[in-house]
Amino acid sequence: MSRGPAPSLETPSLADVRDRGQECFGKHPCHWQIKIAIAFLKRDRDIVCIAGTGMGKTMTFWLPLLFQPSGIQIVVTPLNQLGQQNVNSLRKAGIQSVAINAETATWENFRAIEDLKYRAVIVSPEQLMKPGGEFEKLLIKPEFTSRIIGFVFDEAHCITSWGDFRPEYKELQRLRYILPCQVPFMIASATLTPETLTEVKKRLHMRSENLLTIHMSTDRPNIQLGIRKIKYTLSTYADLGFLIPLGWKEGDPLPLKFLIFFDNIQEAIAAAKFLQSRLPAHLRHKIKWFNSDMTTEFKEEEVEALVSGDTMGFCTTESFRLGMDVSNIRLVLQWRATCSLSTIWQRWGRAVRDRSLQGTAILFAEREYFDDVRQEKQRRKEAKKRKAGNSQAQAPAASAKRRRIDSMPSEATSAPPSSEGKTWNARKKRKVLDPAMDCLINANFRAGFQCRRKVFHIHFNNASSGEKPVTYADATVTASNSIACRQ
């Protein structure tokens, strides 16, 4: 079979990339996006791209294809939904692509890949690193690997954070020894801390001596940030009632399009049912839950319903977090402080990916995580101790008698009472609050912060981007869903 010449090493000018990008994708690439495209085409270095959610990292994956007609770009992505999303967007640009996951890893698809029918291949780590799998066979064929422009590891922070329960992420380190040395690797993420970046580069054996690093600020200035204490019993979800005011009916102003993130599928379902109960019966389908238990096809249909406006919002889990591109979600909430700072920033980044819009992101956190609540609890504890001390001083005889009783032998001294044991077990299992999340919750009142946005600025080392941090007022959302600022 004739496969044509291997990719050319000629590289275009900045102006050429800008013009072709506008022609094919309908957008002028930024200077940093063009630099990444040219680095891919030169094939002489690896690439690190850190940029905020919705800033256009994905465009950098595809720009090189416009200048290598016989080249292939391979993108490793953590979620099936992301793969299909990329296939759909590339189809609009006239670029043939395929997403390979457990459902699509067919003999026919792999033969089409080998025959160079696809310019972009989006693949899960499980399929890429499957022992004896079809991809492994492809990657040892020079006639195929000579066509590879580069390997992109999208949402690269997952390489470290998901490696324990998705072991194929750990196996990615073998790629450097399988592929020709000139194939560039690129890692892309909005949430790479300095420590995570170091670990990812080490695992992928990236060439630190010849590395292009693009570090844009991960800030999202068009998203106002807010933190709220959960007032009501957790299981009622009553704090979320402002999303659907009581008495709302068809014809009233529509609620803001929203996402609520949970770290538990059952909580997401229960919250969705609570919000549905506030709608007229014939409109309750407009609020859905969205999670990993659903099929890929079903999730695609539900995302389309959200995009079109037929669905008001989702109560979702991690399934909607990474890279999902719905441009006009105005409100993103995190229910409970049960995730990491990197995770909440990815989730909040689903808001208003259309930079011309303004959105709001709010964490509803448990009361016990707020400094003022902790301080009040400590004051009560100390007052109780003082009161107990005064009572003991007034009744020394009673105390002595109590001590004599306590010192008597007992058959039960080797174990605590059953109720005490239950309490101890509950405390032992209690999830510890992530220290960075603690800073976020209390930043407005702690020395050195006074702004919650600064917590993210420090955590993701945005100072390295050269961009100055921006301070904003805290965000608040009223029951009528209007967005305002609370100084």
From TrEMBL:
Q: Which domain of life is it from?
A: Eukaryota
MF terms from GO for this chain are: 3'-5' DNA helicase activity; ATP binding; DNA binding; four-way junction helicase activity
Q: Does the keyword ATP-binding apply?
A: yes
Reaction equations catalysed: Couples ATP hydrolysis with the unwinding of duplex DNA by translocating in the 3'-5' direction
Regarding protein family, the annotation reads: Belongs to the helicase family. RecQ subfamily.
- The name on file for this protein is DNA 3'-5' helicase
Pinpoint the Helicase C-terminal domain residues. Answer: 250-392
Gene source species: Paxillus involutus ATCC 200175
